[in-house]
Here is the input.
Amino acid sequence: MIQTEPSRRPRWGEFFIENLIRICGFSAIAFVALVFFFLLREGLPALGRVLPAEMLKQRWYPTFDLFGMLPLLLGSVLVTVLATIMAVPLGLATAIFIREVAPNWVREVLKPLIEVLAGIPSVVLGFLGMVAVAPLIRQYLDTPTGLTAFTGALMLAYMSLPTIISVAEDALDAVPKSYRDAALALGATRWQTIWRVTLPAARSGVLIAMMLGIGRAIGETMAVMMVTGNAARMPLALDSAFRPVRTMTATIAAEMGEVAQGSTHYHILFMVGIILFVLTFIVNAIASVVGMRGGPRRGGRLLG
Amino acid sequence: MSEKVAFAVLTLAAISVVVPILLVLGYIVVRGISAISWDFITAMPRSGMREGGVLPAVVGTVVLTFGTAIAALPLGVGAAIYLAEYAPDNWLTRAIRLAIINLAGIPSVVYGLFGLGLFVLAMGMGTSIVAGSLTLGLMTLPIIISTAEEAILSVPQSFRVVSVSLGGTRWQTIRYQVLPQALPGILTGVILGLERAVGETAPILFTVAAFYLPRLPTSIFDQTMALPYHLYVISTQVPGMPVNVQFGTALVLLALVLSMNIVATVVRSRFRRRRQW
Here is the structure.
């Protein structure tokens, strides 16, 4: 008998595996919710023990039950802003160089090297920052110690460079060739084409690159903890960038190992985690909203 | 003229990105190589880690890497198949994508907190290899999902069209046409994801890492030393630590991570040469 229609016989194996795949797909949402739930579960009890107004004060001395998070928050902000100021122009320029200027063989050398940078563990960079970069900073910038906000920002800038470069490069890549050809045909120089045509066309991708770079910088822990000196003081003076500072991430990493489970200090550290989670969530949400404005559809879902 | 200046600035930027990378690699190799010997890699640490080798830390890191792969691989590839081949274009799919991007952005130390709260305490695993592997696995998940999805999407649509027109069901098409073609790409993504897990310190701080434990783990409920944490410990917590042991440990960690990077690159380039589309 010749079968003219696809068989309607249920395939239980397929039914099972397709639903399994569906569950895998939905799991990402469940995990974000789970992470947030457990941070809340362990962090919210802090509110019952320390008034929110106390948490916004300027002194962080857990041994005396002083949990003012402001110096940590500002420490993170200072280091992140400094790192962004260094990394975004540098990363963007490098992406333009790789995509638009460099000859092919230079590109083939640069891209794997930048991937290598992305792979260097943050603890290795932190170690190098301590033994090699900090002494240089103390010597040449004449600061009392080499372990400063600036040292941390420098390490962070290099750690977020691979993210910024690769995302910006993708954005430049996505600009249609016809734009460039049109500009060149109208007599624009290569630089005018890059500056007036390609970059503006890629601006949303550039914004995403910046956001993801900032997101990496806020959340980075080990390198920052090892090179910023970890002094929980308000970084408000003009020379704060060249003094020790302490970030939220470093505080969690340094203190969580020593607190008793269930103590006020324990819950407060989870509270710091909640703040970090929310901050990075906002930064990444901005990046993904900008990024979701479609793109050409390629292979993928075919049936149903 | 202005073009020359602009291109010079761009070149300078690229140089100032690349030169420090080479300096970092060169500096660690030059200062660390003297500490490296067969003994350094295969011996237990002695006298407060100031002498001996890094064996338990190497073994711990390798075990954690496999644990991470077991935890993240099936889920990550499953999610990637869903997003590439099944997900309709609706708000739920957008929510999943938003969730993945945000998972990728959660700071590593916050993963550590989460692992402590859920695996170590609430589920009663204690500080153990399972707890650490699950924490690292969750952290690696978004990387695996996005690279695997990319690999699946890059399989040309014609493979699917032919399979379906021959009467293949959706799952048969995926299983026998799409996945075999996407496999090298998926593999590359998995290795790159694991490479990040190998080097991470913050997520294992409170979930598995032991400060000083000169023996090998015997069960998945043991604590273990791990290379990144070991480097942190000997460079900040142990006074009078010989510098060449620090550099030697950094070099072993770097070599482990970079060799994974090289494997990923080789897989990718061999695949590019072989494929016909």
Residues 52-274 of chain B form a domain with the MetI-like fold fold (CATH 1.10.3720.10). Strands of chain B lie at 45-46, 51-52. Chain B has one domain: 52-274.
